Amino acid sequence: MDNPNGLGDALGGSALTGSALTGGGLAGGLGGAGLSGAGLGSLGLGGAGLGSGVGVLDKALSVLAAVESGPATLAQLVAATGLARPTTHRIAVALEHHRLLTRDVQGRFVLGPRIAELASAAGEDRLLAVAQPILNQLRDVTGESAQLYRRQADVRVCVAAAERSSGLRDTVPIGSALPMIAGSAAQVLLAWEEGERMHRGLRGARFTATTLAGVRRRGWAASAAEREAGVASVSAPVRGHGGKVLAAISVSGPIERLTRSPGRLHSAAVVAAGERIGELLRADSGHHA
């Protein structure tokens, strides 16, 4: 196959310009058209749909739209898109390289994990807008620094925070990438993962499957000196529609204040904060449905 690392080259040499399919991925090349909500098919890119004038992108989106309703073989992609078989194959393999498509156990093409990542990123601004005032309240109620974490591959990233204004505190700068193998937020982000992904995440972790079972049973996690000596934390999930865990909300501080059983002090406040963020997100999503 021609140059599998570049989608434009892989599609027969047609070049994409501007932000399309570079840097942040496909989203930039869509000029603001979302991959969620009404769905890929609504973009009018299947079969005889109207094109954008950027042929290579239209063809790629028509292939994605063809698998929106379920797995498809190469022959089914050809039939659905009306593209030539060699062209369809080059596009599908290139999209697979970029994780926009993947294959099931039968070798059929299905939507890949990058689609979910882009959809998640599209909702990031709303999550942060909803979460920040609640993080501020959580900090004020507990007297400890509060953070919001999202999982990105094998790390968890602090996407929002409200720092304790004075005294000894645990400071986690926004944008910090922390390991998924330690800390109460890592436990929360892993506890509700599907079985195989959860077990992969436990490799090298400082907690066990039994620990995660306890997190699911209680609805919150706690750690003391697990990620960093002298630091304790409590975390709870932030859930979207269908109960999907979108993020982990935490408070953290010195063990001297939080003790080695920080959940006894702050679990109720942290769980309530996570539930409130989830409620607001789901309500907002319902208003825009």
From TrEMBL:
<dbReference type="InterPro" id="IPR050707">
    <property type="entry name" value="HTH_MetabolicPath_Reg"/>
</dbReference>
<dbReference type="InterPro" id="IPR036390">
    <property type="entry name" value="WH_DNA-bd_sf"/>
</dbReference>
<keyword id="KW-0238">DNA-binding</keyword>
<dbReference type="Pfam" id="PF09339">
    <property type="entry name" value="HTH_IclR"/>
</dbReference>
<dbReference type="GO" id="GO:0003700">
    <property type="term" value="F:DNA-binding transcription factor activity"/>
</dbReference>
<feature type="domain" description="IclR-ED">
    <location>
        <begin position="114"/>
        <end position="283"/>
    </location>
</feature>
<dbReference type="InterPro" id="IPR036388">
    <property type="entry name" value="WH-like_DNA-bd_sf"/>
</dbReference>
<dbReference type="GO" id="GO:0003677">
    <property type="term" value="F:DNA binding"/>
</dbReference>
<feature type="domain" description="HTH iclR-type">
    <location>
        <begin position="54"/>
        <end position="113"/>
    </location>
</feature>
<dbReference type="Pfam" id="PF01614">
    <property type="entry name" value="IclR_C"/>
</dbReference>
<dbReference type="InterPro" id="IPR005471">
    <property type="entry name" value="Tscrpt_reg_IclR_N"/>
</dbReference>
<dbReference type="InterPro" id="IPR029016">
    <property type="entry name" value="GAF-like_dom_sf"/>
</dbReference>
<keyword id="KW-0805">Transcription regulation</keyword>
<dbReference type="GO" id="GO:0045892">
    <property type="term" value="P:negative regulation of DNA-templated transcription"/>
</dbReference>
<protein>
    <submittedName>
        <fullName>IclR family transcriptional regulator</fullName>
    </submittedName>
</protein>
<keyword id="KW-0804">Transcription</keyword>
<dbReference type="InterPro" id="IPR014757">
    <property type="entry name" value="Tscrpt_reg_IclR_C"/>
</dbReference>
